[in-house]
Amino acid sequence: MNSIVFLVVIPIIAAFLSLFLGKVNKLIAYIVTIFNLSFSIVVLVSGKIPFNVAIGGWRAPYGINFVVSDITIFFLLLINVAAVLSLTTIKEHMEYQFYAFYFILLAATNGMVLTGDIFNFYLFTELTTFAIGGLVAYKRDRLATGASLKYLILSSTASTFSLAAIGLIYKTLGTLNFADIASKISNLNKASLSLILILFISSMLVELKIFPFNIWVVKAYDASIPAVNLFLHGMVSTAGVYGAIRILLMVFSKNSIMLSQSSNIANILILLAFITVIISEIGALTEKNLIKVLAFSSMAQLGIFLFGISLGNYEALKGAFYIVISNYFAKFVMFIVAKNYSVIAGSRNYEDMKGLGRKYPGLAIAFTISALSLMGMPFFAGFWGKLSIVGNALLMDKIAIIGVIIILISSVIEGVYYLRISHTFFSDGNIQDTKLSRINCVLPIILAAVILIIGIYPNSIENIIWTMINEIQNTPEKYIQVILPLK
Amino acid sequence: MTQVFILSSLSLMFIGLYGVLTRKNLLKIIIALNIIETGINLLLVSFGYIDHGITPILTSQESILNLNKMVDPVPQAIVLTSIVIGLGTTAFALALAIRYKITHNSISINASEEEEGRGI
After folding, report:
1. ipTM
2. What is the pTM of this model?
3. Closest CB to B120 among A167, A170, A288
4. What is the pLDDT of residue B114?
5. Which residues contact A101 (CB under 8 A, 6 or more apart)?
6. Contact A152/B103, CB-based, under 8 Å?
7. In this structure, is the dihedral angle defined by the CA atoms of residues A322, A274, A287 and B22, taken in order, positive or negative?
8. Which residues of A touch B98 (CB under 8 A)?
9. Which chain B residues are closer than 8 Å to A157 by Cβ?
10. What's A53's DSSP letter?
């Protein structure tokens, strides 16, 4: 399966070509993205997972390698599906800069998920930073330029420190390979591990939208075009979630036990998750701009995810996966609905969208279903996530019980602002006739149906999630031995 | 000698961090970012440094005997890559700064704060 590098190489070639191709770019974007998606599906059904590809024939601890395991293929599919879905929202003509940055983003997010080398991971993170900076600034107006510049400064400052962490890893362990680090990490003393983790996590928290690295989120979402909102949500956050799972839970955990037992970092992460949830829920409650509400809400969901993975409990980890999946689908529905309604209403303020739910009931019902799922109503996908996290955190120490209280209060606050928006959609109002494109109406309904199916039959994805947790539980057998078969 | 390198690289990093956190002028922030990057590069090179080391190139059969005296080439390869990334960041940030000057008529990072209270 050496051809797995095509997932990264072909988008990069397309990024070069897109500079010269002008109007054909849209077609090429569809071809490349659908190629990536179908290639990931082919890898999934080929039955060769897990496998390891040594690039250039240099074997694992010495060269760069790409690894495909169960977690990898799951996130690859999520990212490439997100790319296809986001492309369908682009109707107008885009200039070549947009497509060049889009291809770089596609290559970088695929590479982040595939790579098995920590320096390579850093490089792909930097590429993502550039691509997002360019895509956010695409509108060329005042808001977009400010947002993009702030994101660029914040993100490059954070990632320089992760480069220092990589230097420290090389100095202490003498390797840059994920699997090699994971097998040697138990030799490292606690102080060095804490220093490395603090420096390295800083750059990951930028993509995970966790306080104090989340000041860019709301501005970037508000300033960018709808397709870029979906890129930020579906591709960059998903790759960040993958990075957190792979690096925190599999690479930097001593003897493949969970993070909380290895250092105090877990407590720090839990505190940061609390602050993120509180700040973003309060921000969303007072906000009238629908896009900003969604941005705040996605920060809150990732805060709950971080709380779930820091608990150090496999059942809670299952809940964190459910949160990721439900947030992934629900935010897609919500961003597409917000895009369509803001086009019709001529403003992003949800109070101007009165009566739209009566005119276009499908979209508003899809929005309500996703809102109920994010709140954690029973028989929606988000419920199973919040249930496992809350249920297992109750059995643990004091700090986890504080987290339970915060998550439950945040669910109530989410209920207040989401149902207020839904109510506004269905209340009386006069609107002018506008034609909506058909795919933008059908897509949210299909995704909302997926949320309902997952909510009613959680067994449909429970097996997939347990396969991934099984890989985390048995890191030495399932991950390290794939890459370093001699040990 | 390695300690001198590490100390000076740490001081460069903290000078740069101070600059990024306290300056208001965009160009000064970008320069401070560059100072951090220089500090990190120096740190990485000093990790692979050996006193009176020789270049890690195998020129003949006998040169393999000098393996202990050779400096570590991996940090140098990392630094080369990170220099290129630093160049890219700086060029991109400067290009955005030019547009920032056009759209905000100022290069103070505070100039974009007023849009917070703007009607939507």
Report:
1. 0.91
2. 0.92
3. A288
4. 59
5. A15, A130, A131, A134, A135, A138
6. no
7. negative
8. none
9. 17, 20, 33, 36
10. E
For residue A234, which amino acid is it? Answer: G
Q: Which of B75, B81, B69 is nearest to B9 (CA)?
A: B75
Residue A149 and residue B40: Cβ atoms within 8 Å?
Answer: no
Minimum mean pLDDT among A10-14, A35-39, A351-355: which range? A351-355
The C-alpha torsion from A221 through A226 and A230 to A232, rounded to 10°, is -30
Q: In this structure, what are the phi and psi dihedrals at residue A50, rounded to the nearest 5 degrees?
A: -90, 145
In chain B, residues with a C-beta closer than 8 Å to the C-beta of A349 are 120
List pLDDT tens digits, range B35-88: 999 999 999 989 888 888 888 888 888 778 878 888 888 888 999 999 999 999
* Among B17, B20, B47, beta carbon nearest to A170: B47
Q: What is the pLDDT of residue B60?
A: 82
Q: Measure A142 CA to nearest chain B CA, in Å.
A: 5
pLDDT of residue A152: 92
Among B9, B15, B92, the residue to mutate for chain A (most A Cβ within 10 A): B92
CATH fold group of domain B2-110: Helix Hairpins (1.10.287)
Single-letter code of the amino acid located at A373: S
Tokens of B118: 């703007």
Q: Which of the four pLDDT bands, split at 50, 70 and 90, describes residue A131?
A: very high
CA A235 to chain centre: 6
Q: Under an 8 A CB cutoff, do A130 and B89 touch? A: yes
B31 touches chain A (CB under 8 A): no
Q: Give the mean pLDDT of chain A.
A: 87
Tell me if chain B has a CB within 8 Å of the CB of A163: yes
DSSP letters along B46-93, please? HHT--TT-B-----SSGGGGGGGGBPPHHHHHHHHHHHHHHHHHHHHH
pLDDT of A19 above 50 = yes
Residue A176, chain B, CB below 8 Å: the answer is yes
Peptide bond into A50 cis (omega under 30): yes
Q: Which two tokens stand for residue A145?
A: 């330029």
Contact B96 A143 (CB under 8 A): no
Question: Do the chains contact at A149 and B93, CB–CB below 8 Å?
Answer: yes
Q: Among B29, B40, B96, whose Cβ lies nearest the Cβ of A137?
A: B96
Cross-chain Cβ contact B33/A157 below 8 Å? yes
A3 φ, ψ (degrees, to nearest 5): -70, 0
Contact of A417 with A284, CB cutoff 8 Å: yes
Residue contact A160–B33, C-beta within 8 A: yes
Query: Which pLDDT does position A38 carry in this prediction?
Result: 94
Instruction: For B8-31, write each residue's pLDDT tens digit.
Output: 999 999 999 999 999 889 999 999
Name the phi and psi angles at A106, rounded to 5. Answer: -60, -45
